[in-house]
Write a structure and sequence with these properties.
Elements (H helix, E strand, L loop, with lengths): L2 E2 L3 H6 L32 E7 L2 E6 L6 E5 L4 E6 L2 E8 L14 E6 L3 H4 L2 E6 L4 E6 L7 E7 L10 E3 L5 E4 L19 E4 L16 E3 L5 E6 L5 E5 L5 E6 L25 E4 L5 E7 L2 E6 L4 E8 L2 E2 L4 E3 L7 E6 L5 E5 L6 E6 L7
Parallel strand pairs: 1-6
Antiparallel strand pairs: 2-26, 3-4, 4-5, 5-6, 7-8, 8-9, 9-10, 11-12, 12-13, 13-14, 15-16, 16-17, 17-18, 19-20, 20-21, 21-22, 21-23, 24-25, 25-26
């Protein structure tokens, strides 16, 4: 169940959630060994919100308690928090959701690093003409264009937004079912893009007067940074290999010439690959020395030890088949690990997992 705020003033006033109690929804995982991923207890999870349809983007407001979620098909932006019902803060006009193969809609969300002074929230969304990045404030919900012209198709739309440690806005895009986009530096498709918050191009980007940061990508849906500032991203392959990559400025990751590890010095090989049945990776989040990668087709959360841009141990799956397709994973301001499901049946959830040794 969700409710819609009658006025935006109430939305602003209600951004700080009460830390009430609610019934926890346990997601049992008898096969997972919590010691293998010591930061969080994946044997039980607390349901933050349910009754959603493909909650895609997830980010947090600086009040320390409020999460905001982008619902892909409806374009609703919802405030969620443990112990409170989801509240619709507003709606963004999107296209998508016309069938099970239509992956367009309201996708990634990111909160401005200077939110306390400018109030900007950024969104990646699909229109009739393109995919684009917009920004809006909670008191108006009138989107201002940041970037247009990202190729759009029923699928392979990318869609993740994140501010890096350099306060630049990173945008992941897909090849929009035209693999030639990925090897075309004049196309915004099949790339990771790097922008100033107002949409202008940083002077230190790898290609002059271009937002392109990486290219030769198929469909990037996860971006995250390690403690040393290294950037990782997860990428969906076609029929054979999904990838975990280290992002290097100006690097070409080979699609469509290469899927997975190719060994060609012209292209940058992945750090790690999975079969597409095991993964179809979407969201990614580094916590400590572990990267957590949400798997759609694989219906699990991969935990991978990493340090300094390298994989340092074997990947281990948790939540294997217990909550369905996992779309997004983010570390919450409460220290818990939050995930969204993407089953598309009106029963999708936002769930959080307790840090080992943490309290209620």
């Amino acid at each position: 169940m969700r409710r819609r705020l009658p006025a935006i003033g109430a939305a602003i006033a209600g951004l700080v959630l009460a830390a009430g109690t609610a019934t926890a929804s346990a997601q049992e995982d008898d096969t997972a060994d919590p010691a293998a991923a010591p930061e969080f207890d994946f044997r039980t999870g607390d349901t933050v919100a349910t009754g959603l349809t493909i909650p895609w983007g997830l980010t947090f407001l600086p009040d320390g308690t409020s999460g905001i979620v982008a619902e892909r098909n409806s374009g609703d932006v919802l405030r969620v928090g443990y112990g409170a019902e989801p509240v619709v803060l507003g709606n963004l006009d999107v296209v998508g959701g016309t069938g099970p193969l239509d992956e367009r809609g309201l996708l990634g969300l990111a909160v401005s690093p200077t939110f306390s002074t400018d109030g900007w929230i950024y969104a990646y969304l699909s229109t009739e003409e393109d995919n684009r990045v917009v920004r809006f404030t909670l008191d108006r919900f009138e989107p201002e264009t940041v970037l247009t012209g990202i190729p759009s198709a029923l699928n392979h739309n990318g869609g993740r937004l994140a501010f890096g440690p350099d306060d630049k806005l990173y945008v992941s895009t897909g090849d929009a079912n035209d693999s030639a986009n990925s090897q075309d530096l004049d196309s915004l498709g099949g790339k990771i893009l790097r922008l100033e918050p107002d949409g202008s191009i940083p002077e230190d980007n790898p290609f002059e007067d271009s937002p392109v940061y990486t290219w030769g990508n198929r469909n990037v849906q996860g971006m995250t940074w390690g403690p040393e500032g290294e950037m990782y991203f997860s990428e969906l392959g076609q029929n054979t290999w999904d990838e975990l990559n280290l992002a290097e400025p100006g690097a070409n990751y080979g699609w469509p010439e290469v899927e997975g590890t190719g060994g060609d010095p012209e292209f940058t090989d992945p750090l790690l690959t999975w079969s597409t049945a095991e993964a179809s990776p979407s969201g990614a989040e580094v916590v400590g020395d572990t990267i957590y990668i949400a798997a759609l087709r694989g219906q699990r959360l991969w935990t991978v030890p990493v340090a300094g841009g390298e994989v340092t141990g074997d990947p281990i799956a948790v939540l294997d088949g217990t909550i369905g397709r996992v779309r997004t994973v983010e570390l919450g301001p409460d220290g818990w690990l939050w995930v969204t499901t993407s089953n598309g049946d009106g029963t999708d959830k936002v769930i959080r997992y307790r840090p080992i040794g943490g309290t209620e």
